[in-house]
Write a structure and sequence with these properties.
By secondary structure, the protein is an alpha/beta fold. 40% of the residues lie in helices and 23% in strands. The chain has ten helices and ten strands. The strands form two sheets. A six-stranded mixed sheet has the order 6-7-8-3-9-10, with helices on both faces. It has a four-stranded antiparallel sheet with strand order 2-1-4-5, with helices on one face. The structure holds adenosine-5'-diphosphate and magnesium ion. This is High-affinity branched-chain amino acid transport ATP-binding protein.
Length: 255
């Protein structure tokens, strides 16, 4: 059996901020349909890595490819349209209903545009209806089905984080980038979110790249892990492999 080509391939990516090398020739690949975790101590370069993948930060050198497409110097909205969606660590929605937020996620996919639909042009109305149905399906997949018409402001923190997650899914991504999806959640919410991520990956067949501090979650969810330390990828492997890697232990324990 030949291994399928990687869904996402990061090759020799270097990012410098005035004097500081935030990423130093970092390479890793994400297999189709897999969950890939990027872990490492504070300041290791995890957020910078996500910013490169989503087009918010241009590397000094190196490439990012999605399947056969070079994403390296594309604008964030182009990268999103090509199938890489992300959530942010600290942005949690407070406006509108769950449905409103998910429809915003569909916006980028809407051909006729919201202006046409506001004018009630028949095709636009049909398109809007289809988008709303799909948004409802995605809400259900994320455990938000019963909350579809609920104002986001009255939801629990964990549910609001999942609205962000569902909104990213509304772009129908091939690759979903999750920046600390369970940060700030309680134990029950973490378990629930892990279930949803696993479910979504399976049902939608997408790949997930995850930055996460909760090692329990990384161990349960990730197929593969890349460990960053001072901007370098110091280890790759299964969660079990990297946990036993002496260099990883050194990076975390500082010995
Ligand atoms: P992590 O997410 O792993 O904690 P970051 O990617 O945020 O790490 O940061 C990596 C390094 O780059 C840190 O030393 C950080 O201070 C630095 N850094 C990140 N963004 C910038 C920036 N916009 N300007 C200057 N330095 C930055
Ligand atoms: Mg960070």
């Amino acid at each position: 059996r030949t291994t399928p080509p990687p869904e996402l391939a990061v090759r020799d990516v270097t990012v410098r901020f005035a004097g500081l090398t935030a990423l130093d020739a970092v390479s890793f690949t994400v297999a189709p349909g897999s969950v890939h975790a990027v872990i490492g101590p504070n300041g290791a370069g995890k957020s910078t890595c996500f910013n490169v993948l989503s087009g918010l930060c241009r590397p000094a050198s190196g490439t990012v490819r999605l399947g056969g497409t070079d994403l390296t110097r594309l604008a964030p909205h182009r990268i999103a349209r090509l199938g890489v969606a992300r959530t942010f660590q600290n942005i949690v929605t407070t406006e509108g209903t769950v449905a409103d937020n998910l429809m915003l996620g569909r916006h980028a996919l809407t051909r006729a545009g919201f202006a046409a639909s506001a004018l009630h042009l028949p095709r636009a109305v049909r398109e809007q209806r289809a988008h709303r149905e799909r948004a409802r399906e995605i809400a259900e997949l994320c455990g938000l089905g019963d909350l579809f018409d609920t104002p986001v402001a009255v939801l629990s923190y964990g549910d609001r984080k999942r609205v962000e997650f569902a909104r990213a899914l509304c772009l129908e991504p091939r690759v979903l980038l999750l920046d600390e999806p369970v940060a700030g959640m309680n134990g029950a919410e973490r378990v629930r979110t892990a279930e949803v991520v696993r479910d979504v990956r399976e049902r939608l067949g997408l790949s997930v790249v995850l930055v996460e501090h909760d090692m329990g979650l990384v161990m349960r969810l990730a197929d593969e892990v890349t460990v960053l330390d001072f901007g370098r990828a110091i280890a790759h492997g299964t969660p079990e492999e990297v946990r036993r890697d002496p260099e990883v232990l050194r990076a975390y324990l500082g010995t």
